Amino acid sequence: MPELLLKNADHILTMDDQRRELHGADILLRDGVIAAIGPDLGTTGHTLSAKGCVITPGLVNTHHHLYQTLTRAVPGGQDALLFGWLQTLYPIWSRFTPEAFFISAQVGLAELALSGCTLTSDHLYLYPNGARLEDTIHAAAEIGLRFHPTRGAMSIGESDGGLPPDRLVEREADILNDCIRVVDAFHDPSDGAMVRVGIAPCSPFSVSRELMRDAALLARDKGVMLHTHLAENDEDISYSLATFGMRPGQYAEELGWIGPDVWHAHCVKLDSTEISLFARTRTGVAHCPCSNCRLGSGIAPLRQMRDSGVPVGLGVDGSASNDMGNLILEARQAMLLQRVALGANAMSAREALEIATRGGADVLGRPDCGRLAVGKRADIALWDITGVDSAGSWDPAALVLAGPTRVRDLFVEGRQVVRDGQIATLDLPRVIERQNAIARSLAG
Fold first, then answer.
1. Of 177, 256, 309, 400, which sees the most CB atoms within 10 A?
2. What average pLDDT does the structure give for the chain?
3. Residue 40's CATH number
């Protein structure tokens, strides 16, 4: 891969250990990593002008359900709380095919890329009609994003007191065997990996205590990360107290679901004791503000988690509970909700962007990503600040206050995924056309 020099950026927000901000500087990319940052760099390779741009690390998405891009704004689920929303959508999802999972993943990944995302996790916890985790892995490889798919699962159906219909649950032995299969086939633990696989039972109300414990043992044996939903809303807390006799954080601790190799989605209703537990054990959180608003779940205690030392990243969550997958807008929403709850000085624009970059990378165990520094991966977003979005801004680097919500250019491992505001790696209009045809068939 030839060298690439990003030349003369107006602003570079490095998110490095010193949080340096550079002006009129360059970034040299070589062999998938950042080779140099500073003024007046030269190259024997290609040069791309970054004049009129803010450069940031690529954004990191720590929680998604890519398959849900096929079920945005579904009638009957538009105004429901979490449990009712799930019961509306489960029957629709049960009709998905492997092609539906592949196409919906392509659309969701393209949407993320256009919003500045270079690394995303995905939580796929249902596998109807022959679908497999690699349906999404192949989609990510085609579009070129760095990908952390997680092998989710549900094992407690309606007949056993769970929420999902019986036809969407799996035998727990089959779940664990398939976890082994996909980890062995696709997980890459090396520095700069494009794919890392996690193990992710869906939630404490859709799998057994035994599966949660066995999944944790398996993940640690394989050296992979663990992920699930936790403490998402008041219904979630009530279920935990009634079923397990304890709060979600206590349940997680009892089953081994804490530590730096674990991250939980949402955590809207964590109390102070649970926050202290997560901080002490370096257990991560995927904060999903737009989805939490859409489902009326509440405002997560993000400020308290950050101040206590809990590792926190951002997640767009599924497009059936967010209806979009724009990660820079997620950062803005995170900042605004903390200000609504705690005051206008509760969170700055730069802190919100930090959570969206190095914060998310750290939650996913990727210190090689999420910051711009020599030796880190060449995952880079260029934001054009010459347009109407930034017109009149006194601080164009405060992107989440006044700035574009779509990147001009995006690089992953030094390869260009977005060029001049368009996906460069696949025929997106054709994919969208197929996506809409599948959605119509599901609705009919």
1. 400
2. 97
3. 2.30.40.10
- In this structure, the dihedral spanned by the alpha carbons of residues 418, 327, 400 and 398, taken in order and rounded to 10 degrees, is -50
pLDDT digits 0-9 by tens, 406-432: 999 999 999 999 999 999 999 999 999
Q: What is the CATH classification number for the domain harbouring 91?
A: 3.20.20.140
Split into its structural domains, the chain has a count of 2
Cα separation, 417 vs 426, whole angstroms: 9
Which residue's structure tokens are 């890329």?
A: 113
pLDDT of residue 132: 98
Collapse the DSSP code of 139 into the 3-class scheme (helix H, G, I; strand E, B; otherwise coil) and give the result.
helix
- Tens of pLDDT, residues 236-250: 999 999 999 999 999
Contact predicate 184/234, CB 8 Å? no
- pLDDT score of 3 more than 90: yes
> Helix, strand, or coil here: 211?
helix
**E strand spans, 74-182:** 117-124, 146-153
Determine contact, residues 316/322, Cβ cutoff 8 Å. Answer: yes
Q: 234 pLDDT band (50/70/90 cuts)?
A: very high
Determine, yes or no, domain membership for 434.
no
Tokens of 225: 């990360």
Tokens coding 316: 């767009």
* Measured distance between the N- and C-terminal CA atoms of the chain, rounded to whole angstroms: 47
In angstroms, the Cα distances linking 232 to 240, 272, 286, 304, 332 are 11, 15, 11, 16, 20
Query: Does 331 lie in the same domain as 217?
Result: yes
Same domain flag for 301 and 391: no
Query: What phi and psi values does residue 128 have, to the nearest 5 degrees?
Result: -75, 155
Those residues whose C-beta lies under 8 Å from the C-beta of residue 138, and which sit 6 or more positions away, are: 102
65 and 27, same domain (yes or no): no
pLDDT at 147 over 80: yes
Average pLDDT over residues 297-304: 97
Residues 270 and 416 in one domain: no
Residue 308: in which H helix or E strand, if any? helix 302-308
Residue written as token pair 């030392």 = 309
pLDDT reading at 99 higher than 90:
yes
Contact (CB, 8 A) for 44 and 30: no
pTM: 0.98
Give the rounded distance of the alpha carbon of 46 from its chain centre: 31
Mean pLDDT along residues 184-209? 96
Residue range(s) defining the domain that contains residue 37: 4-57+369-423
